[in-house]
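User: Can you fold this complex?
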Amino acid sequence: MEKLLKKEFCFTALPLTYFFLLFALMTMIPGYPILVGTFFVCMGLFQTFLSAREQNDILYTVLMPVSKADAVKARYLFVICIQMIFFVICAILTLIRMALFAKSSVYLSNPMMNANPIYLGYVLLIFVLFNWIFVNGFWKTAYNAGKPFVLFSIASFVLIGLAETIHHIPGLTWMNTENDGLSLQCLFLMGAIVIYILADYGCIKKSCGSIEKIDL
Amino acid sequence: MTAILEVKALCKKYPAFQLDHVSFSVEQGMIMGLIGRNGAGKTTTMKSMLDLVHPDAGDVLFFGESIREKGNEIRQKIGYASGANQFYIRKKIRDITAMTRAFYDNWDDAEYQKFIKMFGLDEDKKLMELSEGMKVKYSLTTALSHHAQLLILDEPTSGLDPVSREELLEIFQYLAKQETAILFSTHITSDLEKCADAITYLQRGSVIASKAYQDFLKDYPQQHSLEDIMVHLERKPMEFDQE
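Assistant: Here's the predicted assembly.
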């Protein structure tokens, strides 16, 4: 698995995927739907899937002494690593915003979502959608990337829309406040972490099953 | 001689085509030609053997073991090259090799360099910059550098000029003398006349003969060459022939 991961990071991955990690900096933008940055990093991962497909990567990999399931797991681990790097950058920036810029007027008057634990929870939920809809969908055929990505795009923008709307609903304003509701926000984040872990486990299992059924 | 590849009653059904109980075996140091018309099932057979396509029935044994159970161990000992499948064509040969060698326990750098020089390959070239013949030679180089005991080659001579084909066939003969077995599919029958020890003939997904090359020729005494036999077996009157 170590060799396969090295292949994914150093050989298969497009530099664009790493470059798109910079979209984590959108976490700090006030007055902007900052969750869109998470969609962009998924788009960077999508580019690597497309490039790998064009380079015949799956055939190259499974013709070597590598099982099909390991090839799928390696790609999943690559995706998860990129997502975690993005998440950690977002988490650091969120901490900086909450600790150093909590009283900043641009954030206090921000009608959009501020970077807070709820935001981090939504980041993970968008990743769950990407892994469940796109990555799983891709491994059903190992070549069809377009349809699963369109479905993921629709689902993620619905979630981003909901996330940006829901904190305006009376009774749910704690989702975007600075002081009140921090414990509830952390609880939301914890829930998202649990969902992310369970979903990844399920996705890997499902995709490993899919690849064994298809003809390459 | 020992059978290092045994294909047993391989079946695979598609809506418009089926492999029907395909069986044959390849022995150590043997060059076997897998022949048949376009669409006869040569590539499907090879892909089924390599577990890339899931056969509906049958079994494939490499070195006496099933590829479905011992895939990783078997792939350490076999090499596959295809004229159609090219991997990472935009990367330099040097980089592809650096990645590929990591996966083989018995990768031999000295052997790799020997074939790189023998084939005149430039490692700083991208795969896409190589001619078709050089691409096949590079595939062979990687297969031989991990001491593959069996080479499975899907139409390796398609698209090659006569000189490159001749060179490749000489390489096959050299490898066979080193006890490497070669199974190669082709519809260019003249290639087989120069080097094949045995023939497996596929017609519409079924094996109609799998035997020593000379024995196969003896079955068709009225035909002068393998090409004549193939035309005799496959030719159907066209509409304008009947007019």
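The radius of gyration of chain B is 18 Å. The mean pLDDT of chain B is 86.
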